[in-house]
Amino acid sequence: MAIQWFPGHMHLTKKAISERIKEIDVVIELLDARLPGSSANPMLAELTGAKPALKVLNKQDLADPSLTALWLAHYNGLPGTRAIGLDASMSTPAKALVEACRGLAPNRGSMVKPMRVLICGIPNVGKSTLINTLTGKRATKTGDEAGVTKLEQRIVLADGFYLWDTPGMLWPRIIVAKSGYNLAASGAIGRNAFEEEEVALELLDYLIGHYPGLLEARYKVKVTPGITDEQLLEEIGRKRGAVLTKGRVNLQKAAEIVIYEFRAATLGRITLEAPEEFADWLAVGQKRDAERQVKKDTIETNRLVKFKKIPRPAKPEAS
C-alpha cells in the first residue's frame, strides 16, 4: 500500500511559502527526531532554494539518543545547514533557535536589519506547541491530529527577530514507501489515509529487528528468532485483552495500541531510521519513481501519436 495525503490547504501553504521566501533570511525546518529523514520535506528544498537552513530535531526526548546524534552529524555536514535537537524539557528553546539562526545569518537580527525566519514542518511535528513555548502564550492552536494549523502567522520572537509560522505540509507524492508508514505511525498523516493494522505491522517488523528488548519489556512477550509481525501483533492483542468471541484477536484494537504507545513513547525511546538506512530507501524510491515516469511518458507519447498530435518517434539505429 502506498500512503499519500495532501489536503487542499497544503496547496495554499506551498503557495504562501513561495511568496514569503523572497524576504526570508533563514528557514527552520522542524523534523521529528524519531524519523528525521522521512519527516524532511523534499519539496521545501525546491521552494526555499539556497536559503540558510536550520534543521530542528524536535521530540528528541522520544527518540533513540544514539541515532539522534548520527542525524545531527548528518545534517550539520550539509552546506549552509545547522542542526540542533529540541524537546519539551528544554527551558530556553527560544535562545537556542535565535543563536542558531544568527550563526547562519550573522548580519541580521537588529532593529534596522531584523532577522526574518520561516518555520516549516510536516503536520503534527510539534510546531505549534513549540511556538507557544517560545512566546510564553497560546499563540497558535495545538492538537494531536495532523493539520490543525491552517493559516500563516507572524510572531515576534525577540527584538529584531520575526518568525513566520506556516501550516504543516507534506508533499504531493511520497516516493519512499517506508516513509509513508513511518509518517503514519508518527501521526503526521490523517487517519483516513491509512489502515492502522497495516501501519502497526510495518512498525512491528522494524521493531523486531531493532528494538526487540523494548517489545519484550512492554508487552511481556517473547520476540523469538523468526517471529513475524503478524504473530507478534496477535500476541500483543491477547496480552492486552483485545479478544473477540471464540478467542479471536481484535487486530484493529491491537494495532491501535501499538501505534498509540509508539507515539506516546511508552514503548521506549525509538528512532525508525538511521541516516544510511534512509539513504538506501530513498535510492530505491528514486529508482522506482524514475521507472514509473518512463512508463508514464511512453503511454503519453503513444497517446499523442495515436491522435496525430505528434509524429511517431524515430527508432534508434542499430549499431
List the helices and strands and how they pair.
Layout: H1 8-20, E1 26-32, H2 42-48, E2 53-58, H3 65-76, E3 81-85, H4 93-104, E4 115-121, H5 127-135, E5 153-158, E6 161-165, H6 177-186, H7 196-210, H8 212-219, H9 229-239, H10 251-263, H11 275-306
Parallel strand pairs: 1-2, 1-4, 2-3, 4-6
Antiparallel strand pairs: 5-6
If you had to describe this structure to a student in words, what would you say it looks like?
With 319 residues, this protein is an alpha/beta fold. Helices cover 45% and strands 11% of the residues. The chain has helices at residues 8-20, 42-48, 65-76, 93-104, 127-135, 177-186, 196-210, 212-219, 229-239, 251-263, 275-306; strands at 26-32, 53-58, 81-85, 115-121, 153-158, 161-165. Strands 3-2-1-4-6-5 form a six-stranded mixed β-sheet, with helices on both faces. The longest helix has 32 residues, at 275-306.
DSSP strand count: 6
The shape is globular
| Radius of gyration computed on alpha carbons | 22 Å
Parts with pLDDT < 50 across at least 5 consecutive residues: 139-150
Gist of the model:
This protein has 319 residues and is of the alpha/beta class.
Protein traits:
single chain; 319 residues; alpha/beta; six-stranded mixed beta sheet; 11 helices
